Amino acid sequence: MVKKSKLAVAGTVAAVALGAGFATQPVAQADVAADVPPVSAVTLSQGVTSAPFKIKANGDRKVLYRKAVVQPGASTGWHYHVGEEIAVINSGTFTRIDGSDCSVEEYRAGESLVEPVGPTTVHMGINKGTVPVELYVVDIIPTAATSPTTLAPDPGCDIDAITSKNTNAGAK
């Protein structure tokens, strides 16, 4: 259902349709330019995932919205997440290596991934491409957490062998 509100803009009364839970307050005439809408939203990126997931919070959480960029040849290092993370690949190809079985998954622009939580879910992301990988990320973490991730020791995956094998398999 769309809510409607009457709002004074530039000395006139305008009916503004509000969606997505946004609320407005009356704004003084000098605060709003005549050509600026009182509420706007821009989709920065979107992606699709088929991964099933649930978000369950026991207690207060911080919500972080981040833009992450992984340069060509760079990696995130081995880590795990202290809370839920949902990421959208906006550009480039992001290669994720699961530390539990050294499996490889590639995510391209327009795809999303949902990261598992906890120290038993160690993984790494790598940009094997020639252009930066840009991700938009939402983290839902405990309020006491100082970072959405925790560094983890190398689980023993042979990164060079895994990534070259995966690249060769994709080239066939």
In summary, what is this structure?
The protein is mostly beta strands.
Uncertain residue segments = 1-24
User: N- to C-terminal separation?
Assistant: 51 Å
Q: Work out the radius of gyration.
A: 21 Å
Largest sheet, described in full?
4 strands, antiparallel
Mass-distribution shape: globular
Output the structural class: mainly beta
**What is the helix content?**
under 10%
Arithmetic mean pLDDT: 80
Strand content: 35-45%
Number of strands: 11
What string, H for helix and E for strand, traces the elements in order? EEEEEEEEEEEH
Number of helices: 1
Lateral arrangement of strands in the main beta sheet? 3-10-5-8
Structure explained in plain terms:
There is one protein chain. With 172 residues, the protein is mainly β. Helix content is 8%, strand content 39%. It contains one helix and eleven strands; from the N terminus they run E-E-E-E-E-E-E-E-E-E-E-H. It has one helix spanning 159-171, and strands at residues 3-9, 12-18, 61-70, 79-81, 84-91, 93-98, 104-108, 112-115, 123-126, 133-142, 149-151. It has a four-stranded antiparallel beta sheet with strand order 3-10-5-8, with no helix packed on it. The longest helix has 13 residues, at 159-171. The chain is globular, with a radius of gyration of 21 Å. The chain starts with a strand and ends with a helix. The relative contact order is 0.21. Residues 1-24 have low confidence and may be disordered.
